[in-house]
Amino acid sequence: MAKTTYYVPIGPIHPALKEPIRVEAEVEGEKIVKVDVKRGFAHRGIEYMGMKRNAIQTLYLSERICGICSISHPYAFVIGSEKALGIEAPPRAQYIRTIIAELERIHSHILWLGVIAHEIGFDSLLFWTWKGREKVLDILEAITGNRINYSMYMIGGVRRDLKESHIRVLKDMITYYWEFTEHMKEVFLSDPVYKARTRGVAQVSKDVALKLNLVGPTARAAGLRMDIRQDIPYDAYADIDVKAVVPQDIVGEARGDAYDVTMVRIYEIEQSLDIIEYCIDNLPEGKILAIPNYIALLNKIKKTEGEGIGAHEAPRGEVVHYFRYDGTRDGPAVWKVIAPSYNNINSWGYCLLGAEVADIPVVVAYIDPCMCCNDRVAVVKDSTGKILDYSILHRKAVEKTRALEKELGVMK
Amino acid sequence: MTPETIFYAVGMPIIGVFLGLVYKGIDRRVSARMTSRIGPPIRQPFWDVGKLLLKETIVPANAVKWIFNAMPILALASSMTLLLYIPFGIIKAPLEGYGDLVVILYLLTLQALAMAIGGFASGSPFSSVGAQREMVLMMSYEMPFAIVITGFALIYKSFSLSTIASTPVWTIVGPLGGIGIFLLLIAFLLVTPAELAKLPFDIAEAETEIAEGMLAEYSGRNLALFYLSDAVRGFAMMAIEVVLFIPFTLSYLFGLNLSGATLYIVEALWFLFKVLVFYVSAVTLVRTSFARFRIEQASRLFWVYVNIIGLLGLLLIWLEVM
After folding, report:
1. CB contact under 8 A, A6 and B129
2. Among positive and negative, which fits the CA dihedral B19, B22, B24, B26?
3. % of chain B with per-residue pLDDT over 70
4. Total domains, chain B
5. Which of B129, B207, B288 faces A27 most closely, judged by CB atoms?
């Protein structure tokens, strides 16, 4: 009897996916024998928009690149801008920035833990983790005024100051989350069903992780000691000796599967709590903006010619922003964003080959994918397979207009 | 055609659907409370069915049309027939003497089979994968279920449910057989979520993996029929468990002397309460505290562990009877 393979299309719209991406799999019974990942369904042209605006507008635009790690893009943006402009944020502002970034890491990791629980069908855990996440969101709202898009950072500092009452609430939160992470370790790491569903799924060895260019917790779970906060320290991280969280230090060996990623993320929450505690204990006094007047800031940008690279360790991995100011406009002449999911999605094809259909959601979710961070340029091919660039598309548009004019009889 | 027959033919399905949907609503409510949510009102399943009945029924272009449309009816019919074999408290089963536990096993299988065939007939890859999983799962859980039924047949020398319901099983077995029956109860409770396609064994309808599996292409009236058959099957399965394992009447437990209509009403309410206790403990609690297994893990669980538990119980009962 001949073996039959099914063609299982997943996406661009699928219950397991919150954002559009397409995975085309050939399935033989329960085993995947061929897989193809297509992306490019959420291309919004944000970089192009940013080059049409001034730098402060672009800063708020960069916050909208991603919904969950919404502070990472502005963070990389302000670091890169400050390098290009040659200004430095006051120490207090640097510490406040670090606190916000770490608070966001906590909420992003807890969100991911809920998502992975949902993907393996453990909905109770999803509700429970997201209930615990509300506390950090409330704190973020108390400090910045918003739950998700904080609008907190500014080139050369932050826009809001931390008050004494905030610090008191932060201390309460830290004790709450120490208990919460203890509980989470119990629920996730020692639960037999969770272990059975994630052990050995999406396994990436150290060499493969290097070849696939993985970043963030995904790479750290494979045993690579890479963390922007450790390698290229910035802001308050320079004062703290941040060490990359790797499974070798926790359990002695790194397998690089979904279970290890879970472990890395839970322990990173604890690391974030330590960093926040250090920051609020050693918060320097002083002002929070290097150039309080925004008009003066824009004028400075207008006169500046230079380039800068800002890198920040987002919850998902490294975010890199490249800038060039050419001294003619008050906005960036070139703005290039590199988001972590772009690297991490490379692992899908590798992990899905030979996996089971039941593992697809786990493989898709374990990198915490963010499609909006992902799409850079859409290459459009016409039916002959020829790549259409700007000049051809323009010529086609002109031809169409001419044909329409001829049809309507308005040709000159 | 006696009036009784007409009542059973018309009344039992209505009662069964009503009770099944009420239990589904209670299940959802309790599950929500357990996960610190408010949850839907108890009458939400009724609204769901009403909405589905109003919706357009779409048949996919590459489906086998008549099988696709016939299977929901078959599923509902088999679960309705199931109700007629179950003694309702102290009321005797309508079809008593025409069938027994073996028929019940067959009807439960038929319903799962109808879903699987409907999935195959719908021609979607998701449904095909789901139906394959359902077949594998059926092969896994039917054996422990059969073991449980065999154990009861050993004790009573009969497959009839009414015989089993008339004398509680705990009163006629010794200590060895008591342990055996308890092991069978554990095996049966483990089979229940798989039989009802609930977590952790809703592998065939995994929403995040294969987009609801067998039901991926179903919509409108057909989906409503499947929903109803699922609700009725849930109630029937729990009723079977109550009849097998805790058939104690209220009068027997508390030594009450009731007669006439009061007796029937009180006993019916007591029976429904027992069903609710089983429903919450075997479905809701398990559903909210487990993740979904992979298909090979579930198969191993049933073929190895549950079978060992069941066979051990059977062995003890056999020793007792010998």
Report:
1. yes
2. negative
3. 93
4. 1
5. B129
Facing residues of A322 across strands? A309, A336
Chain B interface includes A127 (CB < 8 A): yes
* A window 129-188, beta carbon within 8 A of B: 131
**Chain B residues in contact with A131 (beta carbon < 8 A):** 36
3-state secondary structure of A306: strand
Alpha helices for A185-257 (secondary structure H): 192-198, 206-211, 216-221, 228-231, 247-251
What confidence category does residue A128 fall into, taking pLDDT thresholds of 50, 70 and 90? confident
Query: What pLDDT, in 10s, does the model give residues B83-141?
Result: 888 777 666 767 776 777 888 888 888 888 888 888 888 877 778 878 888 888 888 88
Homologous superfamily, domain A48-342: Cytochrome-c3 Hydrogenase, chain B (1.10.645.10)
Chain-chain contact of A360 with B35 (C-beta, under 8 angstroms): no
Q: Which two tokens stand for residue B62?
A: 């590459």
Tell me which residue of A198, A191, A179 sits closest to A120, measured CA to CA.
A198
Helices A72-85 and A91-119: crossing angle in degrees, nearest 10, is 150
User: Are the C-beta atoms of B147 and B318 separated by less than 8 Å?
Assistant: no
Q: What is the pLDDT of residue A1?
A: 45
Burial degree of A151 (CB within 10 A; 0-12, 13-18, 19+) = middle
pLDDT, residue A90, reads 92
Structure tokens at B116: 């699987």
The residue segments making up the domain with residue B30 are 3-321
Domain locations in chain A as residue ranges:
48-342, 382-412
Summarize pLDDT for A81-122 with one digit per residue, the tens: 888 888 988 999 989 888 888 999 999 999 988 888 888 878
Q: What is the pTM of this model?
A: 0.82
| Unique residue bearing structure tokens 């598309």 | A393
Return the residue matching tokens 């360790």: A313
In residues, how long is chain B?
322
CA of A355, closest CA in chain B: separation in Å?
Answer: 12
